[in-house]
Amino acid sequence: MPGRADRAAGEQTAARATDPECEGAPETPMGAAPERDRPPDHPSGGSRRTSLPWEVWALLAGSFLVAAGYGIVAPALPVFARSFGVGVTAASAVVSALPVMRLLFAPVSGRLVARTGERTMYLTGLLVVAASTGACALATSYVQLLVFRGLGGIGSTMFTVSAFSLMFRLAPEGRRGQASGLFTGAFLLGGVTGPAFGGLLVAVDLRAPFVVYAVALVLATIVVGALLARSRQVGVRRDGAQETPLTLGAAFRLPTYRAALVSSLATGWAVQGVRVALVPLFVAVALGREPLWAGVALTVFAVGDGLVLLATSGLSDRRGRRPVVIAGLALVTVGTAAMALAQVPGALGLVVLLGASAVAGAGAGLLQPAQGAAVADLVGSRRSGGPALSGFQMAADVGAIIGPIAAGALAESASFPAAFALSAAIALVALVAWQRLPRTPPGSPDPSPGSSAGDAGTRRA
Asked: Which domains does the chain have, with CATH numbers?
């Protein structure tokens, strides 16, 4: 369709017009692809079989450790807060302090990553989280605990944005979807294994999880920092390559980035926020079931997410980002909406609950790697994507914060089915945004400024 082809060409022109890096740089045409929706900068031939460099695996190990650490302190944090004589609301505020600070500091972290380099900000972020966690172990009042925990959000966003940016530039162009899937999977696996270990430490002492996590982060910073310092990929600059980052303003002019922001918000809302906050209440209040079934439903979601993610993390590298994102959003929409049907009486209600959780989890496993890789395609591999990636992360954080509040208020004033319907509608809006994107014709040139085959990881990190 000529109109869609013109829009695809317009996206490329807009990206180049707003990026000084592209002036005078020749386009790098990609080989023809068998699928219409192949990622724009997916090179044909052998590059898609190129293995991930060891630096990516080092970053994945660090991601797993950070996620496991969050899980380790999760059982202790609210109980530790209550030990200072505060109520449930105040204890919950300590849990929310970190994501709120992540959201507030995200724009600054994006600019810092672009200015100082990913490696520096990555290691600094790990140390900030380590210092914050260690300080929590030494807290002698509720206010101290609240402040120290909030400061950890600054390190968290520094680490996340820099890790995403560095990993996507180091990963071969035909492996970005796989790298995104493994990154998400590392966080998922760490989040599942951490709480079990944290529960054992809480039995020893309420402060023990914080001490163990802080020490582990310091050791991880030393080991990963030493490995990255030896890398020939990190810190290398290609002659003539510009280092102008993809700014948030320039990225927002690209339709794909705008669609990714909407789907990222939907992910934070339906997958990260409402699922955790509303499902346990739904099971207890609306279904009248034991809390055990809420845990089973969340576990089924996580298993579905993890299995599909690991099995299909590279699917968008072969089939294209757009169709995989659309399929993931469709499953998230259906699975979230189907939650409302779990109010049917008897065992059938539990079957619907678990089935809907599995469907939504499978959708999340498809969605998250593909949408992350789509943003990486726009950034390319020869420059920092800090500002654009921080905006992408902010959208998910906004959804994770606003989603539970809006859906919870609707569940209280109307009904739980209405709350799930609202959450499904948010995912549906994201699906429509991706559906409206133009298909990328086979053999089209790379619309991602500064990205060319084989240059991954060649500018200063």
From this structure: 54-236 (1.20.1250.20), 241-439 (1.20.1250.20)
